[in-house]
Design goal:
The complex is a heterodimer. The radius of gyration of chain A is 18 Å and the shape is globular. Chain A is built from 8 helices and 10 strands. In chain A, strand 4 and strand 5 form a beta hairpin. In chain A, helix 3 crosses helix 4, helix 4 crosses helix 5 and helix 5 packs parallel to helix 6. Chain A is an alpha/beta fold. Chain A starts with a strand and ends with a helix. Among the domains of chain B are: about 70 residues, Thrombin, subunit H; about 220 residues, MetI-like fold (Orthogonal Bundle), CATH 1.10.3720.10; about 90 residues. A 4-stranded antiparallel β-sheet of chain B has the order 2-29-28-27, with no helix packed on it. A 4-stranded antiparallel β-sheet of chain B has the order 3-4-5-6, with no helix packed on it. Helices cover about 40% and strands about 20% of the residues of chain B. In chain B, strand 13 and strand 14 form a beta hairpin. By secondary structure, chain B is an alpha+beta fold. The longest helix of chain B is centred in the middle third of the chain and has 42 residues. At the A-B interface, helix 2, strand 6 and helix 3 of A face helix 13 and helix 14 of B.
Chain lengths: ~250, ~675
């Protein structure tokens, strides 16, 4: 089996208000693997994802990136984050910068690349997400799907070891979802290591190598993507049927 | 623009301004710089120019009764019967240049460069000719109706009396340039190497007088009376003697040129017309007048277009006369050539034009002074505002700072802090009784003993926090760990400045803290004396200026801070997360992501603050800074035109703030980004 890129052990998060959002989550992400985290609202999916690059400080537990614990006060959080890409539900493009500058910002100020080198890399990743034509546009002038693809390119440009997707299609109109999913699927095919929090069950089944089903802050079921077709636990069955009801 | 730099510097840089705005800014600056300084007075020449009908050099002039005669090269002679205003032709006297002339009573004589003397003994007499058969003669002086003395090169002196020539050359053989007599007995001759010769018997015998400058080439002498004898050297020195017989000579230390002994200009002629009034003439259009025996010499303004070498004066009395120069120039005066000041009548300020003429200078200087503090105030205020806003939004709590350390280390730090805190607290408290306050009066301790109070407050804060440190658990869950110290500092600052009146801040900072004086002294220590103008003076020559910009900046910063903080809060938190998620530091994200967006959003409210700052700058008058409002008061003090003065001041303020508002509107437009912020504005 391939190397473990990301290892999460007994992750706990209690918010300052006392909400116990994550109650001991444990799973591994292997090299080249795409893991989909699914679950109903409030099950702690996004919290887990944000804990991984420490946008949320976990209360307890261990997160290791290539065997090295990253949730300690002594770990260089900026360096860790530059190795973990993140794609947000609401895109979060830097709206005062053009598409190209959005992507070169991290390369120039974190990777310390020269401007021309950074632009070279940026154009390359923009080509991968099929956004070359809108290089000079401001984010405000892009459609949602285009924005999300730029956001993916921004994460890709940093050459991350793993990319975290936080519900990448939830804020999109249905007809725009396709292009984003296609891009993500392309990345999966290229062997990019990914953790995807998603509501798109069919997409999770198609793209993910493994599914982690969270319920009330715990891993209720974990397994290959086939578990969506053949859920073992009652809770996952219930969850899947509720989704099917919605879509029908 | 392929790809712009993402920093906030892009918003406020020159390159962010479009070319139209640049032109407007440059033109406005130019206009302000070129507004002419009006002057209540104007000075004009005291000379009139007369037509001489010749372009020959005129060398000498002389008065015969009511008639003025001038003599020039090639025997040119002109005369005037109306005090020099109009001139008539006269038959030339020979072909040689006429170089010197003198008068005695009704008699006049003129000397040619070939040693021929032409003489006219009365107004109605004909010209007579007397041959001297001498060459190199420079000057002639009459000692009677038909007697005279001539001097020349090589110390040559010849006396002509009773139609007979006498050689009176002495043992002094320096070239003699000029001779002058007072009456028929006493005379003086001057020349090279400081030579001064005196006679008391009409030129029969000559004595040497000690010269104050052995190297001076004394070019001209004027023997006014036994107590007033003046001479000039060609290098601009004025020699004088006040002893009868001219026994003692001195160099005048001329007050008007800083007590130098030379006027620093070449002179060719001196003419003493009263016991105090002296006229000077020289090459290169130099005419001078002294009203106090050469102590102060004022250069005459010449009529437009006249710039010749002047050779000789001839005066009817002590004010009216003529002066002649090269190229046929004749000037006449009825005020001894004195420059004429005009426009010194008492102005009628009820006449708006005259009021404006008086006021616009003051208004302009007030305007510049206001713009000066406003520009620096805005820069300082904005910087402080941004800084404070960053501090206020900084998420750094004690927990963030301390979580790297073990619980025992934190407890140790707490114990150490507790000791320091208790010591500060104790020291502070024990100082208070010295103030001898009673009861409620203790609320004034911050003023009575600032240092003690600071120790007390600091000590208290450190003690409280240290106790929390000592009680620290592993999770640092205590309430005080959530305190954000940077935020608290900024809050104290803004609370202080926003809850005290600006006018009191002005007076407290300028008179109480004497901030301007301290900064000025600091700058003087570093850069030296500011002098009275130039760049040094501009920056730290005026301590009220320093106090004013600091007060305005500190005050405005407190208000701008809240505005900018609001704008920062308006940026979705996801932007910070996005910035951090690509590995930027907190400050890096602030600088590259948050601030560029926040500043754009807060341009309209910040513009408000800046306009407020301009208007608040009027309060700088209370510390004596000469900005617009103070100039308005000063205008009223002189003119009593209250409506007009405040009206002008108001318009000036409007010009400043309106320009500022326009610039900000423009800035807002040029920096607007599609899809960012509220798309309001034009």
């Amino acid at each position: 089996m391939a190397d473990v890129v990301l290892s999460i052990r007994d992750l706990q998060k209690i918010y300052s208000g006392g909400v116990h959002a994550v109650k001991g989550v444990t799973f591994d992400v292997h090299e080249g693997e795409s893991v989909a985290i699914i679950g109903s609202s409030g099950s702690g999916k996004s919290t887990v994802l944000r804990c991984i690059n420490r946008l949320i400080e976990p209360t307890d537990g261990v997160i290791e990136l290539r065997g090295e614990q990253i949730n300690t006060p002594v770990a260089d959080v900026n360096q860790v984050r530059s190795r973990i890409g993140m794609v947000f539900q609401s895109f979060e493009l830097f709206s005062h910068l053009k598409v190209l500058d959005n992507i070169t910002l991290g390369l120039r100020h974190v990777r310390r690349m020269s401007k021309s080198k950074a632009e070279e890399v940026a154009l390359e990743v923009l080509e991968r997400v099929d956004m070359l034509e809108r290089v000079e546009a401001y984010p405000g002038n892009l459609s949602g799907g285009q924005k999300q693809r730029v956001a993916i390119a921004r994460a890709l440009a940093m050459k991350p070891e793993v990319i975290l997707f936080d519900e990448p299609t939830s804020a999109l109109d249905p007809e725009l979802i396709g292009s984003v999913l296609k891009t993500i699927r392309g990345l999966a095919d290229e062997g990019m290591t990914m953790v995807i929090v998603t509501h798109e069950i069919n997409f999770a089944r198609d793209v993910a190598d493994r599914i982690v089903y969270l319920d009330h802050g715990k891993v209720a079921e974990e397994g290959p993507s086939s578990i969506i077709n053949e859920p073992k636990t009652e809770r996952l069955q219930k969850f899947l049927s509720s989704i099917n009801e919605e879509s029908v | 623009m392929k790809s712009a730099s993402p920093g906030i510097e892009r918003i406020f840089s020159w390159s962010a301004i479009d070319s139209k705005s640049r032109v407007v800014i440059l033109v406005c600056t130019l206009l302000i710089c070129t507004i002419p300084h009006s002057s209540g007075q104007e000075t004009i020449t005291g000379w009139g120019e007369a037509e001489s009908w010749t372009d020959k050099d005129l060398n000498s002039a002389v008065i015969q009764g009511e008639i003025a005669w001038v003599f020039g090269d090639s025997g040119v002679v002109r005369f005037s019967q109306d005090s020099g205003a109009t001139w008539q032709n006269h038959t030339s006297l020979g072909d040689a240049n006429l170089i010197s002339a003198d008068s005695f009573g009704e008699s006049i004589a003129v000397l040619s460069s070939e040693g021929v003397i032409y003489m006219k003994e009365g107004v109605d007499d004909e010209w007579g000719t007397i041959e001297s058969s001498q060459t190199g003669i420079n000057s002639i002086a009459l000692t009677g109706d038909d007697s005279f003395v001539i001097v020349g090169n090589g110390g040559n002196i010849w006396q002509y009396i009773d139609e007979t020539w006498w050689n009176r050359t002495t043992s002094f053989t320096e070239n003699l340039h000029d001779i002058d007599f007072n009456g028929d007995e006493e005379g003086l001759a001057v020349g090279d190497a400081g030579t001064i010769l005196a006679t008391a018997n009409g030129g029969a015998t000559w004595d040497y007088r000690e010269s104050p400058d052995e190297d001076a080439t004394i070019i001209s002498i004027s023997y006014f009376n036994p107590y007033r004898m003046f001479a000039v050297s060609d290098s601009g020195q004025i020699l004088y003697s006040t002893s009868p017989g001219g026994f003692e000579w001195q160099l005048r230390e001329i007050e008007s040129v800083g007590y130098n002994t030379t006027l620093a200009t070449t002179l060719s002629s001196i003419d003493v017309v009263s016991s105090s009034r002296i006229l000077f003439a020289g090459p290169d259009g130099y005419l001078g007048l002294s009203l106090d025996q050469g102590l102060n010499v004022e250069r005459n303004i010449l009529p437009a277009g006249v710039n010749t070498s002047f050779n000789d004066h001839a005066m009817f009395d002590y004010v009216s006369g003529i002066v002649v120069g090269d190229s046929g120039v004749i000037l006449f005066t009825d005020r001894a050539g004195e420059n004429e000041d005009i426009g010194f009548q008492i102005p009628d300020y009820n006449n708006f034009g005259e009021f404006v003429e008086y006021a616009d200078d003051m208004l302009l200087s007030g305007f510049i002074a206001t713009v000066k503090i406003v520009v620096f105030g805005i820069l300082l205020g904005f910087t402080i505002g941004v800084l404070l806003a960053m501090l206020k939004t900084a998420p750094t709590s004690f927990k963030n700072i301390l979580e790297k350390y073990s619980t025992n280390q934190i407890r140790g730090l707490g114990a150490f802090g507790l000791i320091i805190g208790l010591w500060l607290l104790y020291t502070g408290v024990t100082r208070f009784p010295k103030l001898q306050l009673e009861g409620l009066e203790y609320i004034f301790t911050p003023v009575g003993d600032p240092r003690g109070f600071a120790m007390f407050v600091l000590g208290l804060a450190i003690v409280v926090i240290s106790i929390q440190f000592i009680l620290a658990d592993k999770k640092l869950s205590g309430r005080l760990f959530k305190v954000r110290p940077l935020n608290s500092l900024a809050t104290v600052y803004t609370d202080f400045f926003r809850n005290t009146p600006l006018i009191v801040q002005f007076m407290f900072i300028h008179f109480g803290l004497r901030l301007g004086m301290r900064i000025q002294q600091l700058m003087e220590g570093t850069f030296g004396d500011p002098g009275i103008d130039g760049i040094d003076y501009f920056f730290y020559g005026d301590r009220t200026f320093l106090s004013a910009i600091f007060t305005l900046g500190l005050n405005s910063g407190a208000y701008q801070c809240e505005t900018i903080r609001g704008a920062i809060s308006a940026i979705p938190s996801g932007q910070m997360e996005a910035g951090r998620s690509i590995g930027l530091t907190y400050l890096g994200t602030m600088r590259l992501v948050i601030m560029p967006q926040a500043i754009r959003i807060c341009i309209p409210p910040i513009g408000n603050e800046m306009v407020n700052l301009v208007l608040n700058s009027s309060l700088a008058m209370v510390i004596g800074y000469s900005e617009l409002s103070r100039q308005g008061k000063l205008m009223i003090a002189t003119t009593f035109q209250i409506f007009s003065a405040w009206g002008l001041v108001m318009i000036s303020y409007f010009v400043v703030t309106w320009t500022l508002a326009l610039l900000l509107r423009r800035l807002e437009e040029t920096t607007r980004i599609p899809g960012l912020g509220i798309s309001g504005g034009a």
